[in-house]
Design goal:
The protein has 384 residues and is mainly alpha-helical. Helices cover 61% and strands 6% of the residues. The longest helix is centred in the C-terminal third of the chain and has 25 residues. It is globular, with a radius of gyration of 22 Å.
C-alpha cells in the first residue's frame, strides 16, 4: 500500500500563480553531511554509503519520500549499516554533474570495501526492492548478479519496475525505446487506485519530455488521445491533451458542457484534472463556480481523506510530520480568492483552520493568498 500524495503533485503545475507551498522536511533517514563528509565517515566506520539524488518536482522522488524512506525497516537497515545523504539536483548541480545524474530518483551505492561506486538504481524503488538490493550487496553479490536477479523477479507487471526500466533507457539515450515502454504502461490500466494515480501523474510528465526528442512521439500520443475521445474516456483525454500542449481542446469541451446542468456531473468527475487547466488561464471564477460549488463540503471531504492517508499501512509507516491536508485545500481556497469572492474565501480559510490549526496550514493559506493577490494584479494590469 503506497501513500497517495497526488493532490500535492497537482499543485506543481500551478506555476502561473507565482506562489509556492512549503517543501516537505528531509526524511530523518538522511544525514546532514556533504557527499565528501559522508564518504569519509562511511569509510571510517566501515559502512555503506547511500546517495539519493532527487528533485522536489519529481513525482517518483516524492513517492519514495512518503513510502520507501519513511519505511521503518529501511530506516533500521540504514541506521545499522549505512550513512545516507540526499542531494537535491537543483540545489547541488555540481554533485549531480559529478555523478552524471540524468534522471531522478537515482540511488548510488558505495560498499565499505571500496571507494568506487558499487552500483546505482534509477527510478522509484519500493521498501522491499531497496532492502533486497542493499542486502544483496551486503552479502557480497556483485552489481551484475543483483541486476540479473532484479530483472528475473520483476517480470512485466510491476509498474514501478517498468518505470525504472524506462528511466534507464533514457539514461542510455534510448529515447524511442523509453517512449514505447511508457506508452505500453499507459495502455495498461489498473483497478488499483495507487497504480492508476501513478499512471496519470508520472507517465504524462515523462511522455511530454520525450515529445521534444523523439520525432514519432507526438503522433503516437495523439493517436492515444483520439482513441480516448472515441471511447469517451474523458480522464485520459484531458491528461493527454496536457501532454500534447492542447489544453484548448479541454477548455472548449468544458465551456460547452458547463452551461448544461445535466452534464455537470462530468465536470465533477474530472475536477482534479480541470483545476490546473483553469488556474493556468486565470479562470478562477469558473473553478469556484463549477469545480467547487460547495466549498465547505469539499474541505470536509479532503480532511477525511487526509486523515485516512496519515494512518499507517501494513508495509508503510507514515512520518509524524506528514500532513497532506494543507496542500489539498489550496485550490479551493485559491479559486474563491481569484474569483474575488473574498467573504466566501474567508469562510473556507476559517474551516481549514478549525479542522487543522497548524503552522503548515497557516503558511499554506497565507502563501496562496499572497500568490493570488499577485496573480489578480497581473491579470488586471493585462486587461488594462
Amino acid at each position: 500500500m503506497r501513500i497517495r500524495v497526488w493532490h500535492q503533485l497537482l499543485l506543481s503545475g500551478l506555476i502561473t500563480l507565482s506562489c509556492t507551498t512549503q517543501a516537505g522536511a528531509e526524511p530523518e533517514v538522511f544525514s546532514s553531511y556533504s557527499v565528501e563528509q559522508a564518504k569519509q565517515n562511511a569509510q571510517k566506520e566501515k559502512k555503506f554509503l547511500i546517495i539519493d539524488f532527487m528533485a522536489t518536482w519529481c513525482p517518483p522522488c516524492r513517492q519514495m519520500e512518503s513510502t520507501t524512506w519513511a519505511d521503518s525497516k529501511v530506516q533500521a537497515w540504514i541506521k545499522e549499516n549505512a550513512i545516507a545523504v540526499q542531494i537535491d539536483v537543483d540545489k547541488n548541480r555540481k554533485a549531480a554533474s559529478a555523478f552524471n545524474i540524468e534522471a531522478m530518483p537515482t540511488i548510488v551505492l558505495f560498499t565499505p570495501q571500496s571507494s568506487s561506486e558499487f552500483g546505482r538504481q534509477v527510478g522509484y524503488m519500493s521498501p522491499t526492492e531497496l532492502i533486497t538490493w542493499l542486502e544483496g550487496a551486503k552479502d557480497g553479490k556483485s552489481a551484475e548478479q543483483l541486476e540479473k536477479e532484479q530483472a528475473d523477479n520483476e517480470g512485466d507487471n510491476n509498474i514501478y519496475a517498468r518505470i525504472s526500466k524506462a528511466h534507464d533507457l533514457q539514461t542510455q539515450g534510448k529515447n524511442s525505446e523509453a517512449l514505447d515502454e511508457y506508452l505500453s504502461l499507459w495502455k495498461n490500466k489498473s483497478d488499483d487506485q495507487d497504480i492508476e494515480n501513478t499512471r496519470i501523474s508520472v507517465l504524462p510528465y515523462e511522455m511530454k519530455n520525450l515529445i521534444a526528442v523523439v520525432p514519432s512521439a507526438k503522433g503516437k500520443i495523439t493517436e492515444l488521445r483520439n482513441d480516448a475521445e472515441k471511447s469517451e474516456n474523458r480522464k485520459d483525454w484531458i491528461v493527454l491533451n496536457g501532454v500534447l500542449g492542447e489544453e484548448a481542446k479541454t477548455l472548449a469541451w468544458f465551456d460547452k458542457i458547463k452551461i448544461d446542468p445535466q452534464k455537470r456531473s462530468a465536470i465533477k468527475d474530472q475536477s482534479g484534472l480541470l483545476a490546473p487547466v483553469l488556474f493556468a488561464r486565470c479562470r478562477w471564477s469558473d473553478a469556484a463556480t463549477y469545480l467547487y460549488p460547495e466549498p465547505l463540503a469539499k474541505i470536509k471531504e479532503y480532511f477525511k481523506r487526509a486523515e485516512e492517508m496519515k494512518k499507517p499501512k501494513p508495509d508503510t509507516e507514515v512520518s509524524s510530520e506528514f500532513d497532506p491536508f494543507p496542500s489539498m485545500v489550496l485550490l479551493v481556497y485559491g479559486a474563491y480568492l481569484g474569483a474575488g469572492r473574498d467573504s466566501e474565501a474567508q469562510k473556507i480559510a476559517d474551516e481549514c483552520l478549525r479542522l487543522d490549526n497548524t503552522a503548515a496550514m497557516r503558511e499554506a493559506l497565507n502563501g496562496m493568498a499572497k500568490g493570488m493577490r499577485q496573480a489578480r494584479a497581473v491579470q488586471q494590469k493585462a486587461v488594462k
